């Protein structure tokens, strides 16, 4: 891997050298064209990174929340609950759907929001439940129009691919990917009337694949792909499709599986116990012990939830919203994560593995032995 990385650097060095030499040997008028091209390229790069400031002046018109309803999935806790409260405080009519409408999270919404907010049951994995939700929304819209559907519900299951059951992959896809498709399809007839918008909660992991979360990453790549395709199709109807791609924020998500109440460490233990014997032997107890501590520190969440809410608000209210909003907790995280995203995949592998080594994740004992044997023969 290091060799690959160095080869890339050498390649870059050669390109710089060749371009420098060209400026010496090219005739004058060609050098001028060449420097023009370079400065135009530079303009594009600067424009890309500074467009957000110009947008604030020219594309800041907002829609009026009066008589606009929004359906949100997975509102009993985490992002969904924050989003429901925030949009309610902005004057929208919120249909806050919960997997369990009798949960303490749902009660909290009832107690803390305006009378505009309505709670309904919705399991995004069940056709009948989605159909009931459509009927409920239709019956309770009153004089409102359904302006937006926010596909927020999501789960995270599994760790290393070899320690993750196929069932966990299926469950994750069912909620995070097919759930979004199911809900969107059901509510599109209402959105067509309002020329509203579909807002899909993807993740940074929907573009930048991280390790130890293959099931989740697959489902979020699927979400990003779904939004991309649907965006073209719904353009004909004047419906916007917006993908929200946040980094890690502080919610119970990932840390605790609420259906079982098990924390990260317990879930890793379970996954290891139920893995194939050969897999367990190859990874070894020492790896498992370290893995449990490293996984808890690997993705430090940001407490700045308002950064995510700002993006959601833009997606819902701006007359000309972006197609994609990436929510970062702070400027440093934004810089590091954007840099990683721009890197060639091979470099990403190098960076991620170095990061995990620094955190203290050892190579499984067997991996070292196999490596030694391979090089002895
Ligand atoms: N937190 C992050 O750092 C982060 C980063 C990027 C993207 N995201 C995405 O943001 C979304 C929300 O994440 P979160 O952090 O708020 O997670 P969370 O705290 O675990 O909340 C997820 C919500 O989804 C609901 N849900 C689960 N399965 C459902 C189903 N079958 N039907 C309907 N609702 C269901 C849960 O209901 P119950 O409470 O009843 O279980 C819960 O209310 C997810 O799509 C996640 O992938 C999160």
From TrEMBL:
Keyword flag Cytoplasm: no
Keywords for this protein: Membrane, Oxidoreductase, Transmembrane, Transmembrane helix
Domain Ketoreductase: 68-247
InterPro entries: KR_dom, NAD(P)-bd_dom_sf, Sc_DH/Rdtase_CS, SDR_fam
GO molecular function terms noted in the UniProt entry: oxidoreductase activity
Pfam families linked to this entry: adh_short
UniProt record, GO biological process: steroid metabolic process
TM ranges: 12-31
Domain of life: Eukaryota
Keyword check for Oxidoreductase: yes
Family membership: Belongs to the short-chain dehydrogenases/reductases (SDR) family.
Name of the protein this chain belongs to: Ketoreductase domain-containing protein
Organism of origin: Larinioides sclopetarius
């Amino acid at each position: 891997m290091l060799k690959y990385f160095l080869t890339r650097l050498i390649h870059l060095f050669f390109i710089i050298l060749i371009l420098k030499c060209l400026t010496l040997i090219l005739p004058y008028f060609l050098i001028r064209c060449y420097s023009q091209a370079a400065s135009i390229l530079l303009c594009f790069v600067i424009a890309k990174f500074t467009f957000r400031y110009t947008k604030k002046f020219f594309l800041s018109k907002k829609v009026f929340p009066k008589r606009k309803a929004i359906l949100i999935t997975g509102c009993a806790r985490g992002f969904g609950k924050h989003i429901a409260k925030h949009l309610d405080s902005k004057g929208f009519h919120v249909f806050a759907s919960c997997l369990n409408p009798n949960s303490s999270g749902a009660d909290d919404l009832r107690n803390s929001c305006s009378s505009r907010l309505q709670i309904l049951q919705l399991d995004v994995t069940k056709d009948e439940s989605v159909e009931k939700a459509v009927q409920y929304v239709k019956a309770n819209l009153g004089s409102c129009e359904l302006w937006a559907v926010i596909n927020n519900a999501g789960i995270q299951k599994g760790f290393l691919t070899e320690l993750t059951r196929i069932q966990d992959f299926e469950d994750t896809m069912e909620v995070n990917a097919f759930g979004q498709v199911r809900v969107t399809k059901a509510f599109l007839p209402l959105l067509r009337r309002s020329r509203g918008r579909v807002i899909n909660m993807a993740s940074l992991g929907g573009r930048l694949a991280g390790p130890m979360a293959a099931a989740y990453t697959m489902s979020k790549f699927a979400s990003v792909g779904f939004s991309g395709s649907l965006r073209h199709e719904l353009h004909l109807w004047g419906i916007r499709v917006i993908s929200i791609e946040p980094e890690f924020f502080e919610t119970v998500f990932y840390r605790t599986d609420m259906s079982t109440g098990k924390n990260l460490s317990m879930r890793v233990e379970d996954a290891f116990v139920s893995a194939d014997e050969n897999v367990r032997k190859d990874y070894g107890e020492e790896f498992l012990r370290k893995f449990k501590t490293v996984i808890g520190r690997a993705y430090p969440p940001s407490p700045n939830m308002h950064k995510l809410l700002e993006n959601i608000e833009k997606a819902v209210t701006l007359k000309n919203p972006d197609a994609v909003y990436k929510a970062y907790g702070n400027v440093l995280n934004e810089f590091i994560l954007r840099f990683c995203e721009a890197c060639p995949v091979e470099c990403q592998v190098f960076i991620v593995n170095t990061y995990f080594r620094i955190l203290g994740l050892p190579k499984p004992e067997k991996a070292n032995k196999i490596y030694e044997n391979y090089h002895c023969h």
